[in-house]
Amino acid sequence: MSGFATYFLPCTMHAQSDNNNVSVRLQIELHDGMVYNVEPKDDATIVEDLCIKLLRQYFPKMGPAAVQLFGLASIDKKQTPKMLWVNPCITMEELKKQILNSPTASAKNVYFLRIRFVPGRKFLQHLPILGQEVLKYLYLQCKDDFVKSRLSEIYEQDIENEAKARGYAVLSIVIASKMENKDCAEILSKQKLDAFLPSHLNVRFWRRVRLKKNMRTKTKEFLSQHKNTSLDELWLGYIKDVLNEVQSYGVERYEAKQVSGSHRPIQITLDVQQHEENGNTPFKGLFIHDEFFSSIDDFRSIHITPNHAEQKKVTWNVHLDRSNGCPEVLSFDSKTVAESFVSGISGYYRLITDYYMNPSQQMELPSLQEINRLKCHGPIDTNTAVQKLKTKYLSDEYYILKQSILEFDQFAILFCNAGQTRKRVISRQNNKYFLEGESELKFENINSIIKYMADVRALLPKHPVKVKPQQEPVDVLRKLYVQEIIPDGDEEAAISNQRKKPCLILPEEIKIGDLIEKGSFTEVLVCDLDSGTLHAAKRLRQTSTDQMFRCYEHFQNAAQQLMRMEDPKFFVRVYGLVLTMPPVLVMEKAQYGSLASFFKKRQSNQPIKPFHLLNAASQMAQGMLYLSENQLVHGNLCCRNLLVFRYEIDDILVKISDPGMVSLLNNLDLLNPQNRHRLLFLAPELYQGNFQRVIPKMTLQSDVFAFGTTLWEMFAFGQNPAETPQFKNLNNMQILQEMAQRRLDPPPMLNTQSEWKKKVRDLMSLCWRPCEDRPAPNLLLRDLRAQVADYEPHGENGYSSIKRDFDDTIPNLGREGNTVPDLISSTQEFQPQRQFPTFNPPLNASLDPPMVFKSSLATTNTEPSGVIIYNRSLPELPLDFKYIISSRRLQISYKKLGSGHYGVVKEGMLFASQDDRSNPQKIAAKELKGDFQNVIDSEEFKEEAVLMSKLEHDNVVKFLGISDNMLILEYVEKGALNMYLRKFRKQNNYLPRWKLIQMISDVAQGMAYLASMRVIHCDLAGRNVLLTDKLVAKITDFGLAKILQQDKDYYTRSTNKELPLMWCSPESIANRKFTTKGDIWSYGILVWEVFTHAEPPILCSNFSKEGYKTLCEGERLKKTWYCPKEVYQFMEKCWEFEPDERPDFNQACQKCREFTEIFPEPKDGLNKSSHHQEPLPPVPPVPKLDIEPMENDLDPQTSTLLPATGSGVKPPSQPGLQPSEDLKYMINTNLIKLDDEVIGKGHFGFVKRGTYSPKGKEVSIAAKVFLKSHSKVIEADMVKEVNILGTLDNLHIVKFYGFIKKPDLMMIMEYVENGSLKNYLDQTRVSGGRVPDSRLIAIAIDIAKGMEYLTDIKVFHCDLAARNILLTKDYAAKIADFGLSKLMTGDKDYYMRKGQEVIPLNWCAPEVIQQTKYSSKTDVWSFGVVLWECFSQGQIPNLSKVTEELRKITYYRLEKGVRLQRPQDCDEEVYGLMMKCWEWEASKRPPFSQIFVQCLKLQEMLGKDS
């Protein structure tokens, strides 16, 4: 059967059941037409073995490197995804069970052996390195997909051009003739067109003969033109064409749900094809909803766990842990889809990042296990191996063992002998090994061959050292996906030296405070820099001068070592050195000190759970991975050198500190008492045969050994292993001798038999293996993250299969060793519920008593043992990125501004960045109580944050963002309105009525704004209104608020929610139905509070029982002596029983205006407040709105809300403090292709032409590329330009597409063919020509029309000039360059620009020159100058040749009436229009609407441009 031209036989899996004996017949099709039948007795036990067996059998020249690209897939257009990949690690029996249990199983289940990891289009030229047959197979696969119409079925793309499709057929025929060594005519005569063309492109019989004849002709022509073209080149050409036409070829798409999100389906794309234009990995990897999520390199571990949250079915969660962002959990409906997704990421990770580790422990391939067992390099290039030996391992004692690229069962050993690099080939046959050329000598294993080569052949030294593979890819495979960039050696060294250079701090800049911890040689104290931020200062203890000098060098070594550990995520940050005696190392301060001391000193409300320990261990492993990647060693890992920066009930943050005086300790005898505490942390190879002195050269392997002991120390809660009963009574020598014979016994809490404890014990044992067999840090991290994933709950009520094991009670030992109560148990399980008094509403009302709050995200399931399963999902980001504030930019004080049921409010500072601590902004941080790591773990706080992010009004507290478990709000100086007024009442002092009316009018304006935004507050009260230092009232606390749907004007709240009863309207109490008319009732209560100076609004003694009845009987709060009659009458209207009879907030604003007229603010300055009351603007109509209150701070006795939970301050506006720019205009870099040619240059960068392909449609663009040296300086200005350009949509405005921040800062705009008007005029003038007046006036009309549009939407250009006007191919004008523009809001018609030193002087109006004051009339002046430029044929508009004090001289000349002279040959009417634009008084200049009309008249006079 011809492998090329034959139809594929389907891969079928027949399931037959006979008396419970199930047999599955499995057929797998290769892309050469071969079909393989898998028999029950087949020795292929897992899928990977099966794939390798088939490839070795049918493609014997397909080597170990090429098989890494393959996978086994089923294709079904009814399933999602349409191509599903089989887990390569499952057994054949498991695969057959999946077939039988599949709901879509049938008699015909198609499986294909395919190249899964298709190389990038740019890198296909490297594919032949893996052998000719892999190139052939990829060609056959692409051809089959084209002919069988799988391109459209799988990738939803096809070769639609019929002529091009027939061109593919011609190329296939030519290739077939070369493969089968036959003439093309013979190929066409023997095979049907169906073998080369898809069925939908085949023609009917009567046209087919003619088509075949035509194709014979074309094939002859093609062959004559490509006589010398090799078969490899033809294959490669066909593949490249298919990949260019179907750009998603090889891209995998899945559908899942984010566990922490809205549970809506999301689209996931695994793609290293479409995003390859940039060459490197940051834009290749995983995308969620087409937004870049993570590169392949950044994945650290992937783990699959079952989720039993849904009763009907089990879903499968995939935990993605990455180095560049928060972990993510994705939920898949089936295990097979989850495994397909994970195996894809794992495969790419091994090909691109680290060949020797699979990020998913559950998919560790047997072939990978064999490589790691042999400590053998993969199929790397021989030159790479030689280079590795020459550059890193200079001694002859080293050798490298590697796999062959092209041959299975073949290895190569490379070594140095007599100064020369040599290579010997080792072959394997029938599980025996032999050297090439010496096949008569068979060996049991490779180690025996190494010993033979050393002892007998003397090719290797007596004790050769094998170079183990590091965390690295295989070069020949990585080249298929990534373009390697080799950094300049000198530049890299310079950067490295600069990075390690310490920062020196002057002694007078630091103030030393209290002692934190003290060691044998050093002490740590609190210190304060001039920035006002507390740090930690580490210095030598001042014992004796001799000891200090002896320790000085070792202290410097420790400081330098910590400075090399640069990543602040994993290591304590160093701020600098103080060169005093003793020297001081200034570091960031850990809140809880070292982990060892935290274990001893933690409070009773700080329990330690397995999650804490595993998380701390994984963070330590991440730090070790960083050390490994940067070829660094710590040398003294232990709990004393892990610092605790954050502790939460379900989270902990630790960082690795400096190694301390380890170099000093290494010079002491191991028998010295100073070394006792570290004996069991030292790897045996460091002191073998020498107890007198430690070998000073620590290694990564010795760090791994110490990691295992530190893990033991963690699970022993800080107990040093040398102090355990096993070693306590032994001296140092005896301990070392004991350790030579055995290892540490497990700590007590790991003694019991459970799955997770066994895994932790096994991990420790791996770390204590002999040096060569210890795991690398990336493996430690992967396994620990898998443990954390197993521990974390999945979904709202689901948990993993080993979740119950993880909830063993851990003894929590306090300072004196007493048991510390479990906070979760004490607060969730055993805390008595609060009881609320109930009352009986009338018959037409329904009211359930308020229920105690229980978060839906913090459900607890009590096991029979009494242990609580605490479910927590990973946080989502429901807000714009600009509202996510890094905790490193915050400094929160312990000063409480308020507290309530949900949290406390603390004072704090917000900095511009984590490095820039100048000009901090004062803020209020609303911190969650309870078991929440992040705001978005709490539904209530999350809703409040999302709602507040949509609000912006002078009388609403400004929301700045979220950070961890805090809402960050503006700081409002005077605090809560009720507390402020109460202070005056207690002093028997009352504020003047006009001040009180100003306060209630502020609240009315804020509530009217909320109503216009369809927001109901539901908890309006004096405690939830804050006052600034000028007594401006601001509404806060939106915990009960709700945004209404568009089709509803009410909201009914569920019955288990607490209500602020004494502020609630009758319908809210009875039916729990809330509207804006309910808010107006509460507003009436607030006004009553204001005029009573915060007396409690008590209507009856037991409001919870009798309140509703009292309201129904018409009883209301009584008028007090200080309340004006007019104000109380308005209150009574707010308290009408029927909601429709109450006023709305529009009317409330109007009433406040009337009150202001009755009680005006004094003009004599007596009792006058600094509060500035501007006229109340008209308020839009308020719709009827309803909403239900959420749980809040309800007093259980009075059913009233507790006092307000805090406040916040609004500081002066500081642009540098904005969290980040809006990302809605960010463009995916991979949709942009730029030409090499630069079409324009400037001071800050250059412009290139290119294409942009949004939604598959390609458009021409111009990319404004900013130089990296200037990008940070101009980024803020560029963002302003982006925000303005994004609002513009006009034919005469350059279309703006968006911007890019990486790899370079760019603005993407439409490409305008003829460039700038300035260049066009200059080129025409220099060449001796002249632009006709008719064309010039047409250009002026376009500019005037564009400027009229900008004026209408209140945008000032501020830099209108010929250089900023672009011309299309038809010479239509488009306005560009909005760098100085300003989008105006409010009632202002001008803009004052501060700090602008450089202005385009010759284009500026007088008010701009003198005051930097811009308006639409200043743009009119600039338009006149542009008109002058046009009719002067591009001359520069200079008013003065004087360069000194040019700005003042220009202003003086303009003031005296000097203007630009009429250009030569310029019509008087045109010049007259210019002079009108240059009127001294801005108000006399014509608007652009008049200028446009005037230009049209001029066009009638001058003629239209042809």
Automatic annotation (TrEMBL):
Residues that, per the record, bind ATP: K926, K1264
Localization per Swiss-Prot or TrEMBL: Endomembrane system
Pfam families tied to this protein: FERM_F2, PK_Tyr_Ser-Thr, SH2_1
GO molecular function per UniProt: ATP binding; cytokine receptor binding; non-membrane spanning protein tyrosine kinase activity
Domain Protein kinase: start-end pairs: 510-788, 891-1156, 1233-1502
InterPro entries referenced in this protein's UniProt entry, alphabetically: FERM_domain, FERM_F2, JAK, Kinase-like_dom_sf, Prot_kinase_dom, Protein_kinase_ATP_BS, Ser-Thr/Tyr_kinase_cat_dom, SH2
UniProt keyword list: ATP-binding, Kinase, Membrane, Nucleotide-binding, SH2 domain, Transferase, Tyrosine-protein kinase
Name of the protein: Tyrosine-protein kinase JAK2-like isoform X2
Species in which this protein is naturally found: Crassostrea virginica (Eastern oyster)
